[in-house]
Specification:
100 residues; alpha+beta; three-stranded antiparallel sheet; two-stranded antiparallel sheet; 4 helices
Length: 100
């Protein structure tokens, strides 16, 4: 997106001119900061190997919300699991959370 500002008359907007025109670019996404490291994303094959489960179980558990996961780019995007979320999920399972 470009924003044109001009100290000249309105006719400068309709014509290409070089006098007193400032072009500003607006960044759509925020610039990443050093203080916010990107999360470590795991692929389904890596998680299946770590948990010793089948691929079909992992995809079904992700679809049902039984295991924390994300889809990149929307609901049909590739499945990824955030390593920190997966570790927290395993810790909760060890503590027996949700058992009655």
């Amino acid at each position: 997106m470009r924003v044109y500002r001009s100290a000249a008359s309105n006719s400068c907007r309709d014509q290409r001119c070089s006098r007193d025109v400032t072009v500003m670019r607006i960044r759509k996404t925020p610039k990443p900061t050093i203080n916010e490291p990107a999360p470590n994303l795991l692929r389904p094959s890596e998680v299946c190997e770590l948990l010793a489960v089948s691929r079909s179980w992992l995809y079904e558990a992700a679809r049902d919300g039984r295991i924390p996961s994300i889809r990149l780019g929307g609901p049909d995007g590739p499945l990824r699991l955030v390593e920190a979320d997966l570790n927290a999920w395993i810790d909760q399972a060890r503590r027996g959370r949700g058992r009655g």
